[in-house]
Every structure is written in structure tokens, then in C-alpha cells.
Amino acid sequence: MAQAQDVSNTPQASAAPPIPTVCIVTLDDEFLEILRNELVPWVRVVVRDSYEDLARWTREKQVSAVVLDIDTQGEDAFGGLPVLAELRRLNEDFTLISISRARARSIEKQALSVGADAHFRNPVDVLELRMTLLDTIRRRAEEAVRERSRQQALESSRFQEFIGASEPMRLVYDAIQQIAASTINVLIRGESGTGKELAARAIVALSRRASKPFVKLNCAALPENLIESELFGSERGAFTGATESRPGHIEMADGGTLFLDEIATLTLPLQTKLLRVLEDHQVQRLGGRSFRKIDFRLICATNEPLEEMARTGKFREDLYYRIHVIPIQLPPLRERIGDIPLLCDYFLQIHCTANGIRLKQISADALSALEEHNWPGNVRELENLIQRLIITTRHEEIGPGDLPSRVLEGSVAVQEAILLPEGGTDFDGQVRQLEVAMLTTALRRAQGSKTAAARLLNVDVQKMKYLCRKYAL
Fold it and tell me: Which of 2, 61, 154, 232 has the largest CB neighbor count within 10 A?
């Protein structure tokens, strides 16, 4: 195995922060001496003359950066490219700089494509290399700090499968914790996409029935002639096609929890049968004569106004009171906009990883636009949008221009960013562009007549002629 040499000659004061360690991999002693003299005051330098076991070695030595001569050894003139790719694969936080003697631009492209932060050709401008190296180390260190902060924020805002630290969500978490240990029925209310099933799962996870069956049924997903057998079960021959006896979801939840989503869609006859099960704690299959004793906890969810439905006779009032023992109201996303940055970070992380894409970020202006959006589809809509942006955005930062028009239309932040970018703008130039655009449009509509164009713009004809001379129109 190649030997590593510590060539740093700058002692560190005990109170000073540790300086980064840079590994230089090269056989060019002359280049090494020049580069070492340029780097040593700022970093600790270690040297290796071989690619052998480099990835493991740099990890164990806590190396911050590697300067890799990709044509150092071996029959392959650029055998260091696979090593470069392996280093990047094992550590996204590495600063990687490659050097070579090749003049072809294709080598630089290959090095950058496999993970190098920068590529230099011999003879190397060591001052430029030093500046690039130190700047990249600093930038990656800052990114690592921000990433740790994001991870800490995500962890502190996580509750079961929920992400959110806003006050409305804290109230939801408190309510779930208060009722989880009981056996009473729960009604979860909220708009579509707010996470009603997540709330049900959180209740179960914190309850004494956590290890027991969790059976869920979307009452709106099946036609009326099927949902009855799915819910209560059936005996063989109970109806056409019933070739065997089958337990229903209520039976399968015995000892555990039954989650009925969209319960408001149940017909009145089915509501009556469900009420009887809740009162007697026993169920009779379709076509059956006997009753089976069932012990289950019922959690229901709806986005419908059950009180109004009960008042108009569309929902049984007695069933309403039976399931409405403890309600939990999930807030829509527009009422918890403070959670949008956390949710974006979370969805970016899981979906970039799932798609094998380097972690992307969202710019401040784009995030402002997301916070101003109304989100009729709530968290589900936000997640779907993030998934789409990960695939369709080619750059690493998602900006306002990458967002769909429905998000941008109501965004004051985006409109301000367009009118006045962060770096400022050329006021006279912008006014000139606007005047030229309006004049050109008016002349086109007036078929070249300056008099008619002046009427369209509500200006004096002489002023119109002056402006046309000014802009050579």
C-alpha cells in the first residue's frame, strides 16, 4: 500500500479551530513542492503516490479535500477518473479537484461529470488552484452546516409520519397523544390532502393496539354493491359470485383498529348496519345466520360537513354522535405556511434520493411563491409538485421560473423579483424596453399609422413622432 506523508509544517494553536486536511495524489515531485508551499499556511497537507485504497484511507483520516492527478499511474492514461467517481459516490461533501497533462477538453468534461468540483491542466496556476480549493472547501463546509441545521429542524418538527412545527400542527400532535391510549372512537376531519390517514396511523402507533391489525377501507372507492360485503364479510352463495366465505374488514380488524375513510359516502342502510355493530360489538356476514363478537377501535375520516348532513337526513344523527366522540381537525396547508420550508426540504430529500438525483434546493423567491399559494390540494399537492420539479428542473436550484403558472399568478414575491432582482436593475434601460414594446405594439395594431397609434396610447401625435424618432421606429 502506498505511504501517506504529512508535509504540513504549521503548528496549530490549541484554541484555534482545526484546519482542513487536503490529500494530494501525484508522482510529480516538482509540482508537489510548488503546491505544498502554496497550501501549507492554510491547510494541512498529506501526500499519496497511489490510488490504492484511497477512498477508505481518506475517510479514515477525515480528509476534507483531494487534489487528484488523474494520470498519475497505471497503463490507462486517465485511470484516476474511476477513483474520482468513487470518492464522490462515497462522500458528497468532499472537495475534489482533478489535474492532468492532457489538453483535450473532453478530459475536463469527464472529470467534472464524475464528480470533480474543478479541473486544472498542467502547467497548473497554483495560486488559482489554491483559491479554488479553499473557496470550495469553505462553500462545502457551509453547505454541510446548513444541511445539518435542516436535518435538525426536520427531526425537531417530526411527529410520527407528520412534518410540521407550526402551532396548528402542535395542537394536532397534542390531541393525538391525549387520545391514543384510550379505546374511544375518533373522527378525523380535514380537507383532502391534509393527512387524515397519517393521523389515524399516528393514533394507532401510540396506542395499546399498535401491534394489532390496522385495517383501512376507503368508503368512496367501492360501489355500493361491493362495499357492504367488504365491510361486513359474506358467506358462500350470499350473492352471485360469492364462491367462498370471506371475512369483512370489521372482522379483520378484530383486536386492532378499523379506519374508515370518507365515511360520509356510506348509504343510510349501511350506516344503520354499522351503527348496530358499534352498539352490539358483533357482526353478521352477508348471507350468514350467526353473529361474531368483535373487539375493534373505530377511526373515521371525512372532509364533508356531517352536521349539515345529519340535519338534512343524509347522515344518521345517532351514528354521527357515536363516531364523533373525539374529533381531530387537521389544518389546511394555507393555515400552516410556516411548515412549507420544512415540507419542501423533506420532499426534496426523499424524492431526490428515490430518483437517484443529487439533492436540489429551492431559491428564496421560489419558496416565497410557494408560501403565497393557496394550496387547494394541501400537502398532497405540494408533494406532487416537488416530485415534478425534481424531474423537470435541470439545474440544482429550483427558481421561480421553474414553478407552474398557477403558483406564480398570485405571488407578490415573484412579481417583485421580476420587477427588481436582488442584484438591482438598470432603471433607464427597463423604461426604454417598456416604451419600445408599447410603441411597437401600438404601431403594429395601427398598421404603421403614427396618428392612430398615438390615439391607442392616449398621447399627443407630436410626442408619438418624437418617441418614434428617439427609438428609430
Answer: 232
